[in-house]
DNA sequence: TCTTGACTTGGACTACAGTCCAGGTTGTAC
DNA sequence: GTACAACCTGGACTGTAGTCCAAGTCAAGA
């Protein structure tokens, strides 16, 4: 798969794919002409990498995870530990957003009351 | 209230308080010696500003909100509209984090199974 | 009066995550 | 064999949100 196809598959831009590679998050094979050649395994890894990123993991931590992954199955317990730590973070985020939503709704209710009061 | 007291009250650093002022998000009175002098109204506004920021509103949008606020009660409907738009965003974030948590838990379950399989 | 510590300013610097660009290469279609 | 799109590289540039620093000011206490 070329970088263009990969971009379409993953929803990332080509720039991002090159950037993540430069940062050591993805290792990409090359064809005879020196062009990037992605496979299905890369698609899966990029999808997971994106999920980690969307959940607020910094690229440098994803890089640590990628390093462990490169070292094979023996690092699975370490990777599991990273994911468990991250789960705690994500669970807290979820609670936080729920709280934010509640407070924002209170504020909106207050504004609505103020405005309808002004109109009378 | 001096900037140091204000920092303690709001949990922000002095740097941030100066930075937000420089960006036009807060208007702070000065004492005779040219020092910042905050009041309770400032504390409340900063607390609300922080909530907007924590929920992902960019400083330039908070600035727009602050501009409306400066113009008085007549801008309440506009502010309400901003908050309602933002509520949609926050609600979506909450759903997103719930989804992320679910997927991450699936991955963790998978890893746990893999690891216990290796051990047998 | 002198020291101390909290404060003032503008501007330079940082971290993070990209994005863009010039100049060059490769592979396919006509 | 040439036009063309898609690709390559390194490095400069961007936006967002700060953080830090030098040089100076101000007020209270010894």
Quick structural gist:
The first copy, chain A, is mainly alpha-helical and 120 residues long. Chain A has 5 helices and 2 strands. Chains A and B meet through helix 3 and helix 5 of A and helix 3 and helix 5 of B.
Notes on the structure:
With 120 residues, the first copy, chain A, is mainly alpha-helical. The first copy, chain A, has 2 domains: 1-70, Multidrug-efflux Transporter Regulator, Chain: A, Domain 2 (Orthogonal Bundle), CATH 1.10.1660.10; 75-120. The first copy, chain A, contains 5 helices and 2 strands, in the order ααββααα. Chain A has helices at 3-10, 14-22, 40-54, 59-70, 76-119; strands spanning 29-30, 36-37. In chain A, strands 1-2 form a two-stranded antiparallel sheet. The A-B interface holds A 48, 51, 54-55, 73, 76-77, 79-80, 83-84, 86-87, 90-91, 93-94, 96-98, 100-101, 103-105, 107-108, 111-112, 114-115, 118 and B 48, 51, 54-55, 73, 76-77, 79-80, 83-84, 86-87, 90-91, 93-94, 96-98, 100-101, 103-105, 107-108, 111-112, 114-115, 118.
CATH architecture of the largest domain in chain A: Orthogonal Bundle
| Secondary structure tally, helices of chain A | 5
Gyration radius of chain A, rounded: 21 Å
Q: Reading side by side through the largest sheet of chain A, how are the strands ordered?
A: 1-2
Low-confidence stretches of chain A: none
Helical proportion of chain A?
Answer: over 70%
Shape of chain A: elongated
CATH topology of the largest domain in chain A: Multidrug-efflux Transporter Regulator, Chain: A, Domain 2
Order of helices and strands of chain A: HHEEHHH
Number of E strands of chain A: 2
DSSP strand content of chain A: under 5%
Oligomer: homodimer
Query: Mean pLDDT of chain A, rounded to whole units?
Result: 95
Structural class of chain A: mainly alpha
Which pair of chains has the greatest number of interface residues, and how are they split between the two chains? A-B, 32 and 32 residues
Largest sheet of chain A, in brief, is:
2 strands, antiparallel
How far apart are the termini of chain A?
A: 66 Å
């Amino acid at each position: 798969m070329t970088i263009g196809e990969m971009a379409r598959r993953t929803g990332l831009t080509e720039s991002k794919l090159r950037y993540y590679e430069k940062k050591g998050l993805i290792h990409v094979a090359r064809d005879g002409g020196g062009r990037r050649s992605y496979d299905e395994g890369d698609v899966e890894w990029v999808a997971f990498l994106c999920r980690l990123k969307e959940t607020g993991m910094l690229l440098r931590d994803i890089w640590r995870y990628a390093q462990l992954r490169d070292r094979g199955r023996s690092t699975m317990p370490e990777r599991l530990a990273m994911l468990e730590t991250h789960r705690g973070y994500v669970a807290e985020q979820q609670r936080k957003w729920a709280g934010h939503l509640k407070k924002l709704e209170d504020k909106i209710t207050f504004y609505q009351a103020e405005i309808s009061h002004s109109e009378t």
